[in-house]
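Hey Z.,

So I finally got round to the zinc ion thing we talked about over coffee. Here's the setup:
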Amino acid sequence: MMNRRTFVKNTGLVTGIGASTGLSFLNFLFKQEGYQMMPLRNNVGIFTERGGTIGWMASKDGIVVVDSQFKDQAEHLMTEIKKISDRQIDLLINTHHHGDHTGGNIAFKGLVKQVAAHENSKANQERTVKDLSTTILPDTTYASGKWSKKVGDETMSMHYFGAGHTNGDSVVHFENANIVHMGDLLFNRRPPFIDKSAGANIASWTNVLDQTYSTFDDDTLFVYGHSGEGYDIRGTRADLMAFKNYLEKSLEYVKKGIDSGKTKESLGEAMEIPGAPEWKGSQARTVAAAYTELFEEGK
Ligand SMILES: [Zn+2]
Ligand SMILES: [Zn+2]
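And the result:
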């Protein structure tokens, strides 16, 4: 049987709970408890436990964290990063304001030099967090186009392509590693949350995916906030076009259904959208958002 060291080397996977509590290797392998710290390319990797996937870059010359899950998870991440580098965290980026991506911001209080996000993400966070002493807000925002900053041997950039999952989602690029964190702009084979209360727009979202597709290339490794059962939170830009197809087919399904006399409620009972069967599960939220967009907004 492989020992733990061999396994770690082979998979590039480090698990926190196994390392810190001395759980046996078999427990680690089969129970998959705790968190996972997975290096991807260069000094860049991902962290998963509870909430939207975290991206990180850690070396002796710089530390960047993209999204923060919740407080406990952010602390687990920092424990692992300290093993790589004991420098202060240079930059925290929030892809957008939702609690499963910013809930851990508070764990960075006093420990991070700069917090950055799109200006709408900051406004949404200010509007939705009841007690602002329970979080830290971005101190750096941008409104359009691209924001960049060099950290260590990596250049971080945020791109804003318009409204999608909310009105404040950034596409975050680790330029040298050529890894893109999509935040919740891509739900990999899982019906998405479309946050109309924060300016989400399905038609604009398809355009965001087009622009993202043409900005990056076939070598780009993409990371997603969430994925469906059995699907990876990593992928390639082909996933962008598959998800764009899901969004387009959703608008089409609701338009045709309503035009032929069906109700929003009956359409929402579907467990898949015709023409996009990989996004399995309740379509009620997607149908409701598409209905709002097609028949209520701007009227
Ligand atoms: Zn999320
Ligand atoms: Zn979200």
